[in-house]
Amino acid sequence: MLRIENLSAWYGEAQVLREVSLDVAAGEVVTLVGRNGAGKSTLLRCVMGLHAGQRGTVELDGRNVGKLPAHRRARLGLGWVPDDRGSYATLSVTENLTLPPAVGPDPWPLARVYEAFPALYDRRDSAATMLSGGEQQMLALARVLRMGARLLLCDEPTEGLSPLLVQQVGELLREAKRHGVTVLLVEQNLHFATGVADRHYLLAEGRVAEAMDNSEVRSRERELLSYLGI
Amino acid sequence: MRRTVGVTAASAAMVVLVAGCGGGGPQSGGDGKLTGGSIVLGVLNDQSGAYSELSGRNSVKAVEMAIADFKAKYGDKAIAEDITVETADHQNKPDVASSKAQEMYDRKSVDIILDVPTSSAALKVADVAKEKKKLYFNIGAATTDLTGKSCNKYTFHYAYDTYMLANGTGKTTTEQVGKNWYILYPNYAFGQDMEKSFSTAITAAGGKVVGSDGAPFPNTSGDFSTFLLKAPTLNPKPDVLGTMQAGAELVNVVKQYNEFKLREKGVGLAVGLMFITDIHSLTPAALAGTTYTDAWYWNFDQQNRAFADRFQSETGTRPSFAHAANYSAATQYLEAVQAAGTDDADTVVKGLEGKEVDDVFLRNGKIRAEDHRVIHDAYLAQVKPQSEVAEPWDYVKVLKTIPAAEAFRAPSPDCKL
Amino acid sequence: MTGFLQNTFNGLVSGAFYALLALGLAVIFGMLRVVNFAHGAFYMLGAFGAYVLLTEAGVPFWAALVIMPVGLALLGMALERAFVHRLTRLDPLYNFLLTFGLTLILQDLVKLRYGVQSSPYETPSALNGSVDFGLFDFPTYRVFILGFAVAVCVGVWWVLTRTRVGMVVRACTERPELTRAFGIDVGRWVTPVFGFGIGLAGLAGVLAAPMRAVNPLMGADLIIVVFAVVVIGGLGSIFGSVAAGFGIGLVQAWGEAYLSDFPIISQTIVFIVMAVVLLWRPAGLFGREEAPA
């Protein structure tokens, strides 16, 4: 579904991605792990089309989208869950949900979203930034489900959440996967990652250092944790 | 005023330097020669801002008309064949005025600077004229300081001043319209000067200033309603609102005076300083019945009208009093040079002092030797109702001629030439 | 008491102009991150356009009230396409220079044709009288301006808060990049929003023509206060700009009425308020600190 080849990216003079190549098959959940500054978020931004200084190939369903602006990529079925949760202060919860157009074959109707997230329904007329951090994370996920996105780009969706909420996020992603949604996930929580994902890429200094499956991550958990500095 | 030896030496050195650099003729010593063989008149005024319509480029045109008339009058006998005009835009900024004036005198061989509206700029140029010992006829500015504490031997104040305006409008309005005044003035040098002059004139005529307010200057909101609403509530109720605002601010005050229907509420309007161009902006209907003091009016008599017709064929518009005064000033300067046989400043000044003059602008005019105030008849004018306006720009009827001797103040003891 | 009410009313009328101008600046800044220095020039063009339409084509005030804002909005959109949008990716200084230069050009073009002297424009005859409020009467035209400006502000507020268009504009304004990532072509909204802001300036200009001196520099002084208003309200805040607009109108009117013995204060009161607000809330009364990227 997603194929990245020789992707390099810069922030001004500093190169943050060095010829990264990876691919994600339809229906897969793949995580990117790595230290802070390894280039994980930049990679997601490059896929989304939000990063200007990049070179290389980004293919979606076999189509090169490298020249497409972000809004056109979104319409091809990309769902963006940014690391700051992307809540609009000037939009109510409902507006946050209904702002993006449907981009995939199976968008959730608003009623279904509210059924799945009763907490959001209770606060539907509040400004989105008035919600708690966990609620905002739910809102961000609910939004891309409502869009019917086929490939979710999730940037650390569990960061700063309570264990209960982390569990809930995990269930959501698994549920999405059951419906055939593909997910590319930036994640520091290895335990969470192995719980939802099929495969993992370890990014180090802007390169893909290793590709691992769940069992490999589990067996090397101690080593990886100390490498990640957690 | 005394000058220190140092300054004198410096300016003397400057003169030598300039004479050396200019490569023109020798510094004239009153021996019947012209510097550089030509006469150069400098018009320094506002060519792009608020005063560019009432003086501006059309003042330059007026000066050119004066030169043409002078040449026609003297023909071969004219003291110079080569009489030219230099112009510069001072943007109403004192610093710009000062440096442009220096440039004119030093590098453009200008013999006399004319016009210079905006009081603060006018005073700066007077300092330059004094230092360079070159002539300066101020026309466009109102401050009495030019013939008061800032007067000097080379500076003449030609057309009008705040005393003339206050004395004419303040005194007559107090006598004829009502004794109680509310004065609204822009809160900076000109406005404060006007407020003082008006208060003095009103009190002297037996009137009373029941209130006076300085409005912000520049008034960024363009709104004067706070003051206009206050006027009818004062006790005793003022008979007259005297506004000292000029240009666009005057337009705002008058528009809002009409909006709040103050005339219907028994508060008449008197305007401190108004040019024919202001009436044109506001339309006579908005100002009908308003009295003000005018230094000259284009449709006053046949002589003025003839000049105005010529001016209109040159410029497409009728002359303001400043335009006529520029014409007159240039003419009188050229006449003085012709009579003296030299453009040497000291000799020309000597010829001008005390001279009695009558021309299209100066009626019963006299160039006072004591303070270099050029006195002449002034006019109390009233804006006609729209129904009486017979032709474009014919907005005013002259109620009364104020004789020259009464129109201007006596020479100030502050002035020591 | 009567005096106080009158001054309050006048403050609101002045505030109406500030609000309309600040509202336009705020939507433009929000959407483009461009401080439009030419806003005062478009206000002037609105007033001058009304004058020219009346004197040269006999078009009355009421028609000008529609024609000028629409015409200027189209001009604004053309300018946005031709110039402004080419510079939005660069340092904000470039658009500052562009819009400032545009101001000078527009002012001088008008000056060249019509001179600096104010041009006459009369109050439409239907609004020439006074409205009796019992305690005091008030010029009908001022009542009209206040009502009209409030109606426009409420209308804009309604569109922004109650319609899908408004929702998209708010989203584009608050977080343009994020909004693109949600499949919305932010660029497509930029041009009409710029035109809309310019149209509001033109509308304020037409409203000003009967009560203010119509001359090429009429926007130049006013716009300085409007920038202060926008900063006080919070850069880019729609509600803040309107509230601060009316608020500053009131503060100025009360200052002139009750602090007339302290001209230094009454003349600078807008900037005193601005300084105090910025010390207290650096992002303005209703502004938010920029979200981290």
Automatic annotation (TrEMBL), chain A:
Q: Which domain of life is it from?
A: Bacteria
Extract the Pfam families matched here.
ABC_tran
Q: Where is the ABC transporter domain?
A: 2-230
Please list the GO biological process terms of this entry: L-amino acid transport
Keywords of the record: Amino-acid transport, ATP-binding, Nucleotide-binding, Transport
- UniProt GO MF annotations: ATP binding; ATP hydrolysis activity; branched-chain amino acid transmembrane transporter activity
Q: Which InterPro entries match?
A: AAA+_ATPase, ABC_transporter-like_ATP-bd, ABC_transporter-like_CS, BCAA_Transport_ATP-bd_LivF, P-loop_NTPase
Q: Which family does it belong to?
A: Belongs to the ABC transporter superfamily.
Name this polypeptide is given? ABC transporter ATP-binding protein
Tell me the organism: Micromonospora endolithica
TrEMBL record, chain C:
Biological process terms in GO annotation: amino acid transport
Name assigned to this protein: Branched-chain amino acid ABC transporter permease
Question: Species name for this entry?
Answer: Micromonospora endolithica
Q: Which GO terms describe its cellular component?
A: plasma membrane
Q: How is this protein positioned relative to the membrane?
A: Multi-pass membrane protein
Tell me where it mainly resides: membrane
State any single GO MF term: transmembrane transporter activity
- Where does this one sit in the cell? Cell membrane
Q: Which residues cross the membrane?
A: 12-30, 60-80, 92-110, 141-160, 189-210, 222-250, 262-280
Alphabetically ordered keywords of this record: Amino-acid transport, Cell membrane, Membrane, Transmembrane, Transmembrane helix, Transport
- Does Cytoplasm count among this protein's keywords? no
Report the sequence similarity comment from the record: Belongs to the binding-protein-dependent transport system permease family. LivHM subfamily.
Q: Does the keyword Transport apply?
A: yes
What lineage is this protein's organism placed in?
A: Bacteria, Bacillati, Actinomycetota, Actinomycetes, Micromonosporales
